[in-house]
Amino acid sequence: MTELTRLTAAELAEKIHGREVSSVEATQAHLDRIAAVDPAVHAFLHVDAEAALNAAKAVDEELAAGRGPVSPLAGVPVAVKDVLATLGSPTTCGSRILEGWLPPYDATVTQRLIAAGLPVLGKTNMDEFAMGSSTENSAYGPTRNPWDLDRIPGGSGGGSAAALAAFEAPLAIGTDTGGSIRQPGAMTGTVGVKPTYGTVSRYGLVAYASSFDQAGPCARTVLDAALLHEVIAGHDPMDATSIDAPVPPVVDAARRGATGDLSGLTVGVVRELVGEGHQPGVLAAFEAAVAQLRDLGATVVEVSCPSFDLALSAYYLIAPSEASSNLARFDAMRYGLRVGDDGTRSAEEVMSLTRDAGFGAEVKRRIIIGTYALSAGYYDAYYGSAQKVRTLVKRDFEAAYGQADVLVSPTSPVTAFRIGEKVDDPLAMYQVDLCTIPSNMAGGAALSVPCGLVDGLPVGLQVFSPALQDHRGYQVAAAYEAARDAADGGALIHRVPELEVVR
């Protein structure tokens, strides 16, 4: 069954729906792959083989009865980042403070996966409460990059990206607050998409920074990401920030883009995102990708977004401020970890002991930063000023989209670094989010598609699209992907070194 794990999600769906392969066989193949290689990769925090196989069996029974698949991806397994609530399965957010917590409900994204007939393999590892750029901040140990097990897979959603690169899952769900889908995609040679804010429900997504958090699809191809995007997107009355608008035609755009014609499209290279701080090989790969877009018929222009230079600093004031509010709910009184409750301590003492034991260093750091930024006497100087920068970032995007249909940049300024290399240098770690944060500040769409290897490690091309125009990015990315694969003689992902199987 090993070959089933190498198929794209679209190919696997075609075989399942044509009854060449059963969903149970496909799901079991991926469960076997997880058992074989995940002890080395550590992409998963929890695997629910029984639930996944039961869901797969239900799809097979529907198809055997002559009823068509309930969705284009029915029967194709999926992994879910451990920040989305799953009824009956633990949701820990990579934190000790939620160790073993079983949610009493499913997140809307989880509900939609189940309704569409996708067997959920399990929950993937992540930086604690999505705070990190390397998946080293998980309380349950780091995830390793399948391209080089001594290196990080990106973060905070490194588990989902690594599961794809290790062929443990054909599809995965991530969340993106400041680049946590796209940056791991770039570092693992996979595709990661941040949809327009508000187009995928946040109901049941454990909040880090509510005005930034956005769930989205992770896959090994642009088409697979688009198919998953259409499954999870759409208005949800349970989410007050959900946009009541049609889902952009992302699948049609991906199929159209794969024909390889970008004539009539203008691509804007963001000047501020290709300068200082980038690894030379990353810039060279990006420039080659831009040249390929030009060869496909796109008009390439340079655009300037001056406020992007301030976006990183502003983000690291606004997001921690929201986190300091959101994480106040973990009080040891209602659910989760409780430390020191021996009958002699006050509720305040138990709360303090629990938070000290339950939150990791990076989470504590961001809570402290956010609380300080919101405190009396500093609110206007820090939080208020950062929000003004956010407005300037939005205006820069608007002006740039007056000159170009999509914008492009490298996804990450560096390739995957070694585990432990930056863990004691928070500022160096934050710099890895340099290129991804602006789209979270503005709320538009952005995706990362692999654009080559630098010293044997993958790099990503980031494509920005205006709000509710997600399909533009899919078209450009699919066109580039098709041209790249044709030039390379096959998909980049199949160059991942074979992992040692644990017997």
TrEMBL record:
Keywords, ordered alphabetically: ATP-binding, Ligase, Nucleotide-binding, Protein biosynthesis, Transferase
Boundaries of every Amidase domain copy: 25-472
GO biological processes: translation
Residues annotated as catalytic: K81 (charge relay system), S156 (charge relay system), S180 (acyl-ester intermediate)
InterPro entries on file: Amidase, Amidase_CS, Amidase_dom, AS_sf, GatA
Top-tier EC class: ligase
Enzyme Commission numbers on file: 6.3.5.7
Description of how the protein assembles with itself and partners: Heterotrimer of A, B and C subunits.
Family: Belongs to the amidase family. GatA subfamily.
PANTHER family membership: GLUTAMYL-TRNA(GLN) AMIDOTRANSFERASE SUBUNIT A (PTHR11895:SF151), TRANSAMIDASE (PTHR11895)
Name assigned to this protein: Glutamyl-tRNA(Gln) amidotransferase subunit A
Recorded name of the encoding gene: gatA
